[in-house]
Amino acid sequence: MPLASKTEIGSSGYHNENATRAESCGSHRPCNTISAYQPKQWYGKYHDSIRQSLGPLMVLPVTGPGQTEAICFFEYISIKHLNEYHPCDSWRKTLMFFSQTVPSVRYAAIALALVYRNSLDREASDRAKDGSLGNTPLLYYNRAIQLLLNQEVGENTETTAITLLVCYLFTCFDHLAGNYVQAMMHLRGGVELSRHIDKAIPKDDNTYDDARLSGARTLIGQVTRQIRRLDMQAVTFLVDWTPADIREETLVPQLPPSNSAFRSFDQAADHLYILVGRVMGLHNKEQQIPQTSKISPPPSSLKGILLKELETWSSLFENMLQQGSSYETGSETDPLISLLRLQHTIAWTLLNSYGPGREMEYDNFLPQFRQCVALAGDVAAAHERYSGSLKPTFTPEVGIVPVLYIIGAKCRHPAVRREVLRILRRQPIREAVWDSISAARVVERIIEIEEGESGEGEMTQSMEQIAVWQRIETLSWIHVVSAARLDVRYTFCTREGVHIESLMI
Predict the structure, then answer these.
(1) C-alpha angle with apex 110: 91 to 191, nearest 5 degrees?
(2) Dihedral through CA 266, CA 270, CA 275, CA 278, nearest 10?
(3) Which of 276, 313, 438, 475 is 20 to 30 A from 128, alpha carbon to alpha carbon?
(4) CB distance 329 to 271 below 8 Å
C-alpha cells in the first residue's frame, strides 16, 4: 500500500514461537552476517561449505509433473528476478540447493513458483480447477508451514537457517498474491528472528560438527542480508514503518572517510539504503500531519547531517568506480550503478525540497528530476534485456517504480511526467507492493487533476501554469486486488479537506 496510512503489522505465530524460545538461549551478541567487503571468490568458498556440510542431504524426489514444472519455473524464472537489482550468484545457488533438499523450502518454493506463473498466465487458474495438488499454490504454502512448525523441538543453527529462508519465500509469495499485510508480517517476523540469531543458537550445541555449523551460519548470513534489505526498503510504501537498522542506532554503520572508497557494491548499497530510509522517514512524517497543521521543515541540524552523509556517500561511490574492482565489474553491475545513482539523487532532491514554498519548491529541481528519469530509463532498458520480453516480472526488492511515482507526482513539467508514464507502462513490473501499472494510473489521475484548469484537451505547457492551490500535496492509495481497483486519498496544498475516490486499473 504505497504511502498508506498506519497499518498494524505484527509477527506470525511461528516467528513468535521462535523468538520466545530464543530468549532463553543465552545473552545477545551482534549477529553474524556475510561481510560485504569480500570478493566473489569468498562467497563461492562459503557457498561450497553450505553444500558440503549441512548433513547428509539428498535431492528430494519429484512426485508429479506439477512439481517438475514448478521447480523448473522457480529455477529459471523466479530466482532470476528475486534479486535482479543486486545480483548474487551464490544466493541464487543457495535458494536452488535448499529447494532441492529441504522439504519445507521445497514446498515454499513451489508455492511461490505457482503463484508467479499464475500472475504471468491467467489461464493457469483455469487449469487449477482439475483439483490436482500441483496446480494449487496455497496447498504447498500451507504444507510448508506445517513442515516448518513440525521441526524438532529445540533450537539449532540449521533450524534457524531454514526458518529464515522459508520466511523470505513466504514474504515473496504474499507480495505476489496481493496479501500485503501478511507479507509484512512475515518480513517483520524474519527481521525479529534475524536480530536474535545468537540467542536462538545455543553456544554449547554439540549436535553438529564445526563444518556443518559454519555452513548453517553462512546461510543465515545470506538470508539475513536479503531480509534486512527488504526491511529497509519498506519505508517507501509504509509511512509508519521504521526499519530495525534505523531503530537501533548501534546497528547503523558509519560511513568511511570521504577521501576513501567503498570496497564493494554491497557495502555502497547497504549504506545508501540506510540514508534513503532516514530521508523517507522524514518525508513520510509529512503524510501523517493533520491537514489543519502547518508543515514545518525538518530541523536544520538533521537535514544538514543527512545532506553531508549523502555527499560523502556520493564521493565514496564515485571513488570506487574510478578505482575499479577486479571482482565486481561487468554487465551485471551497470544497471546497479544507475540504480544506486538514481536512488541517491531522488533522496537528495526530496531532502532539499523542504521549504516555505511547499509544493512550489519542487520546481527548483527540474535538472535532478530529468537526471532521475534518464537513469530510470537506463535501468528499465537493462531490465527489459534481462527479462528477454515485455512480460510482467516480480522482485521483492524496491527499484525504479517508487522513484518514478515520486517524479510523476512532484515534478510538474509536462514532458517529464509523460516520459515517466511511458517507462511505467512499457513493461509491467512489480517491486514488493509497488506495481508499475497502478503507479502509472495514479500519476495519470494526478495529471488530470492538476492540469485540468488549463483547458479541455489541452496539455499544460509549463510548471508555472499549475498554481500552488491546484497541486496535490499528500496522496496514498490501497490496491484492492480482487476488484482491480485503487482507493485513493489525497489533499491539496494550502487547502483543507481530504478527497477520496476510486480508480479502476
Answers:
(1) 50
(2) 150
(3) 438
(4) no
Q: Are 224 and 164 in contact (CB under 8 A)?
A: yes
H-run or E-run covering 323: helix 300-323
151: left (phi over 0), alpha (psi -120 to 50) or beta: beta
CB count in 10 Å sphere of residue 37: 11
Side by side, which strands form the sheet with 429-431? Answer: 393-395, 429-431, 434-435
Q: Which residue in 306, 319, 303 sits closest to 268, CA to CA?
A: 319
Cβ–Cβ under 8 Å, residues 237 and 433: yes
Could you give the CA distance from residue 307 to residue 348 in angstroms, rounded to a whole number? Answer: 7
- Tell me the range of 153-167, 183-197, 274-288 where mean pLDDT is highest: 183-197
Report the amino acid identity of residue 3.
L
Tell me how far apart the alpha carbons of residues 11 and 13 are, in angstroms, rounded to a whole number. Answer: 6
* Nearest in space to 211 (alpha carbons), one of 158, 153, 165: 158
- How far is the C-alpha of 110 from the C-alpha of 363, rounded, in Å? 48
Would you say residue 299 has pLDDT above 80? no
Q: How far apart are CA 134 and CA 188, in angstroms?
A: 29
CA distance 303 to 354: 10
Query: Residue 442: what residue type?
Result: V
| Calpha distance 120→385 (Å, rounded) | 18
2-6, 98-102, 272-276: which range is least confident on average? 2-6
- H or E element, residue 99: helix 89-101
pLDDT above 90 (res 449): yes
Q: What is the mean pLDDT of residues 411-417?
A: 95
Q: Can you name the residues that pair with 476 across neighbouring β-strands?
A: 489
Mean pLDDT of the chain: 79
**Lookup: cell for 24:** 532463553
Averaged pLDDT, 83-89:
89
Q: Which three cell numbers stand for residue 109?
A: 518454493
**Crossing angle of the two packed helices 414-426 and 366-387, in degrees rounded to 10:** 20
Per the model's pLDDT, the better-predicted residue between 57 and 300 turns out to be: 300
3-state secondary structure of 435: strand
Exposure class string for 193-210: b at 16+ Cβ within 10 A, else e: bbbbbbbbbbeeeeebee
Q: Give the contacts of 28 (CB within 8 A, at least 6 positions apart).
A: 196, 198, 199
| Interval 195-206: pLDDT, tens | 877 554 544 444
Nearest CA to 259 out of 214, 213, 319 is that of: 319
Instruction: Please state the pTM of the whole predicted model.
Output: 0.81
- Using CA atoms, how far apart are residues 308 and 297, in angstroms rounded to an integer? 17
Q: Which residue has cell 490496491? A: 479
